[in-house]
Design a protein that fits this description.
The longest helix is centred in the middle third of the chain and has 32 residues. Strands 1-2 form a two-stranded antiparallel sheet. It is mainly alpha-helical. It has one domain. Helix content is about 60%, strand content about 10%. It has 3 helices and 2 strands.
Length: about 90
């Protein structure tokens, strides 16, 4: 366990080592690949929209697109948090 002290707050980090079986490992890698593809596509969509039109795409717009993607591609149904990280990336 690692403990950091930042402005009077204690932040704790726990690290767990995974030992997945081969079938679990392939499922984890597939989940990672889907997250990576979705994140990169959402990021590229935002960058291109701003570059071409000067328009920003909102989180809600991308979430609506993700709903349509989930209907067409059921493997994306288990990825709820990927677009949230894109949302916070563009808040700064």
């Amino acid at each position: 366990m690692v403990t950091n002290y930042i402005s009077g707050m204690t932040l704790r980090k726990y690290t767990y080592k995974l030992y997945p079986k081969p079938k679990q490992q392939s499922a984890l890698l597939e989940c990672l690949r889907l997250h990576q593809q979705l994140y990169n596509a959402a990021l590229q969509e935002r960058i291109e929209a701003y570059r071409k039109c000067g328009k920003t795409i909102s989180y809600n717009d991308q979430q609506a697109s993700l709903t349509r993607i989930r209907e067409a591609l059921p493997e994306y149904k288990a990825l709820p948090c990927t677009l949230v990280s894109i949302r916070f990336l563009f808040l700064c």
